[in-house]
Amino acid sequence: MATLADPDMTANNPLELIEQIVASHDWPFDRSADGELTVAVAGTWCEYHLCASFRDHERALQLTCAFDIRVAPPRRAEIAQLLVLINEQLWLGHFDLWSQEGVLMFRYGMLLGGGLATAGQCEDLIEIAIGECERFYPAFQLLLWGGKSPADALAAALFETVGEA
After folding, report:
1. Is CATH 3.30.1460.10 correct for 10-74+92-135?
2. For the whole model, what pTM was predicted?
3. Which residue(s) pair with 41 in the sheet?
């Protein structure tokens, strides 16, 4: 991921930094309100929809990264099992299912306390969200369209090949 010219740059509102990062990648975005920024990012598997939200009162930044996958109610129990298995693998953030729309997403929240966010923190946040979505998207596909069980879908998605053919 490309970095900003000054990685130590800070901002009272981290959405300003995220907007600069997003613009440096030429990703389309919309700043619908002072506390929210939405971004479209083309990934390997699909287009991801990032939403960065900042609450100044709590000094909290949240990033969600949603997929172009809608889970029908009859499949949500299986997805819930897969979410538990995937979330056990994560150190930062978690995957979730938005129950109203059936949308799968990765969520990550960061408390800034009395401090300011840095460009490096914001870049890391975006990189982690997109990276985890890219890493686990195949598991969701294998469960929903490949007929795999939650455990088998996760195992297949985490399988890493070594060497070259």
Report:
1. yes
2. 0.85
3. 48
